[in-house]
Amino acid sequence: MAFDIDMIKAVYESMPGKIEKARQLVNRPLTLTEKILYSHLHNNQPLENFERAKSYVDFAPDRVAMQDATAQMALLQFMQAGKKQAAVPSTVHCDHLIQAEIGADKDLEKAKSNNKEVYDFLSSVSNKYGIGFWKPGAGIIHQVVLENYAFPGGMMIGTDSHTVNAGGLGMVAVGVGGADAVDVMAGMPWELKFPKLIGVKLTGKLSGWTSAKDVILKVAGILTVKGGTGAIVEYFGEGAESLSCTGKGTICNMGAEIGATTSTFGYDNSMAEYLRSTERAEVADLADNIKEHLTGDAEVYADPEKYFDQVIEINLSELEPHINGPFTPDRATPLSQFAKEVKENNWPETLEVGLIGSCTNSSYEDITRAASVAEEAQAKGLKAKAEFTITPGSEQVRYTVERDGYLNTFENMGGVVLANACGPCIGQWARHTDDPKRKNSIITSFNRNFAKRNDGNPNTHSFVASPEIVTAFAIAGDLTFNPMTDTLKNEAGEEVKLPEPKGIELPIKGFAVEDAGYQAPAKDGSDVDVIVNPDSERLQLLSPFDAWDGENITGMKLLIKAKGKCTTDHISMAGPWLRYRGHLDNISNNMLTGAVNFFNEETDSVKDQISGEYDSVPNVARHYKAEGIPSIVVGDHNYGEGSSREHAAMEPRHLGVRVVLVKSFARIHETNLKKQGMLGLTFENENDYDKILEDDVIDIIDLDSFAPGKPITLKLTHADGSTDTIVTNHTYNEGQIEWFKAGSALNLIKKQNA
């Protein structure tokens, strides 16, 4: 069924006129990205020829999606906004709190019991405020969105960085923090700096072992984890049209790993077929009627260098399967060179676990391609030498592939089917191991592979590849195996070769499901009570942050000077900490515990300037806060890359950190800091990072003249009494400065609603 069809009709009715006005204003052909952005300007936003990477623009997204880990804090904030119902169609998806351990049924049963308090809270809040609720076991948010809500030419935001998956159906879908979601659900505009545009021209056609996953693995190697920052990536060309809709989703999904705001594809036949296959023929018919507006203008694609800030071209016919990692998703190695890399870098050759599925690769096509490899392996007398797990993306996919016999194929190979949830991809994995610290290798079809991401072990070398490559490696149990060229010895001692995978894009019998797991909200939620136990360790009602007092922030103690990569996983770990996502004080006990202290090269060990002793980061922050002393965090490049989790901004704010000063920010995290009333600053001279010493006390000396584009000056007082002055930059506009003054964006919304 098509959800929110009236909203989609309204978007399509107004879209052609809005696009034409924008085209006349800018006086040139438009990319697809520009068409969607210009047709989603907020009512309060004047139409202008916006300057890429400079203009702040107010948008009106069509919908909001939240996963259960981030929805808790988002909805706790929304409860303070003074609204009776969400202003736009919104959904909650219970996918993050289910730990993978034994298998789907038992793991789901355990999660429902362990997380009952949280699920009941999310269900009741959703019921009260008109929000659709997808129960635990229904599936991973991004797969469920693609199957039910995404539509070509639409705009959505979601409280998860892989919201970008919906770009596979031609949307501009952006991962945001919960505070952004609260704004939109409260009827406020959503602000975004007008993005740069990266065009990726795809020619040729995939074949053999190469899949859509290899496109984004290749792009990640080209652009690196920060090459897409501040940009939307638009894919086009005959190669793009040859890809399946879910293959496009895979490419867009992992665009989060290059720092891109989002990625998208123009509307084509594969999207129409997917919409019809998922019982949304009405949406396909509507899209067909305005299809010229749901892709970039022909002149753009004919001369892309003229319209995009950067253009990359990839010939799919020549593209080789890739394996990315370890420890970063942008270390891209072609399959033909991978065995050599393994040996030269002394990576553990024995593969311990292969994991397929996740929000990135759990479509019907993905499962059938991987299953074809497994089935042929069994026919040739082979079984998996590595542990092997399968994570379906939704109950609809799981039910359908079980009906069609594919899950049985994996189980016969020795595979274990996990619940329709994120599981090992986000560290929700009770891994079976005799030594949780041993140096080892795993390979997944997931999207992220930072150290400790999957199992908490810093010595786990995690590699990323397509589901079919992962399946082949799991059968071999050896990272030096190349399924395109090498043979394996079967149980009879014969040398056999795996054939190329074969998949089915969409189920011939159609998708099927008995219970998709959806709960519609009450038509009138005014009588629904939302109860939070004041003694709960998992849920805590929020208190507003203090407004700025108008004075310079002085006497700040250096809390930590983080060295090197500091992702949101380093700032606020997932895994077991997910249970505290609705309790700000309790989850703050993980704040920056994964960051490396520049001064002693250790994690979770910083100097308490009051006692002179070393202690955990949260303990030292709490000590400073108790003494009424503000603190500052200093970081390196791309600080806060990774997940959209706003807890990484709320925790420092809660524990008394007033300023985060870094060489550069990841986009979502910088916005999250601003939303929580914090100062996010960057060094004007990156070498000034070296001037920050362990015992520094830091003053801001000109905050009283805080204004857009105006640098802020910091005075460093060192332990020996000497001083340094450094200049810092910021990207705050007038509206964001008002957030800072009010103490948070939510404080401002509440004041305006009152």
TrEMBL record:
GO cellular component: cytosol
GO biological process: tricarboxylic acid cycle
EC number(s) stated in the UniProt entry for this protein: 4.2.1.3
Catalytic activity: citrate = D-threo-isocitrate
Pfam families the UniProt entry points to: Aconitase, Aconitase_C
Superkingdom of this protein's organism: Bacteria
Cofactor(s) listed: [4Fe-4S] cluster
Family note: Belongs to the aconitase/IPM isomerase family.
Protein name per UniProt: Aconitate hydratase A
Organism: Mangrovivirga cuniculi
